[in-house]
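Researcher: Here's a chain I'd like modeled. Treat it as a single chain, no partners, no ligands.
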Amino acid sequence: MSADGSAADSHPQRRIDPKMLELLVCPLTKGPLDLDEDGEWLTSRKAKLRFPVRDGIPILLADEAQPIGD
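Model: Modeled as a single isolated chain. C-alpha cells:
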C-alpha cells in the first residue's frame, strides 16, 4: 500500500521469466508447475499443492506450500 492507504499500482509487478518457468518443477513430485494469472502462485496438480511467488521469486519449499482442492 502507498502512504495514502491506496494500493500501489504504480510499481511494476515482478514476474517469473517464462524460460525459467519451463525449467521449474515441483520439489515433491518433479512434475510441472503452472503459474496462476496473478503470478502469485505456482501450482503442482500432481501434488495438489501451490507454492508462493514473492517478488518474482518462486518459494519451492514444502513448508511454504498450501493444499489445493480437487
